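User: Run a structure prediction on this.
Assistant: Running it now.
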Amino acid sequence: MYYAIGFSDGPGWIGLFIALYTLTAYGDGRRSLAIAGIGITVLAAGWLVAAIGIEPRAAIGWVFFRIAASVMAAALGESVRSRQVIAIEALERARQAERSREEEARSRVDAERLRIAREVHDTVANAIAIINVQAGVTAYTLDKRPERAREALVTIEQTSAQALHEMRVVPGGAS
């Protein structure tokens, strides 16, 4: 008779197991595990004290089953929580790696653009220097040696045409 009252089976036990699972699965880890451990210890002590007068004696197995099921519910909840934490951390590491790859790619693109800009600058500066020298020669020789002035103008034309051509073939340049 005492067995039927003190250790009745029913939905209350299932509710206890669900509560332990929920506490550990959705809790914050150590604290929720400690709370579950303390709760299971208190319940186990109460169940064992209540089982002192149990008849038949073989029914004591139900007490140990409830203790084990409570521990398993808490362990299952902790397992689910820790797997979720691991999955979230792995996802964050993957996102960080993707951001790093994107930043590295942007950095390489920026470095290549800078290299091209320097090459264009050098080409244009060289062409302008040649044009400047040839224009000076043209101004100096125009009256005294018109054939030399004509050669300087042809050099200016060729140099500027070459510089414009190089500007057009540079990625992002005018076409």
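The helical segments are 2-6, 11-26, 30-50, 60-141, 146-169.
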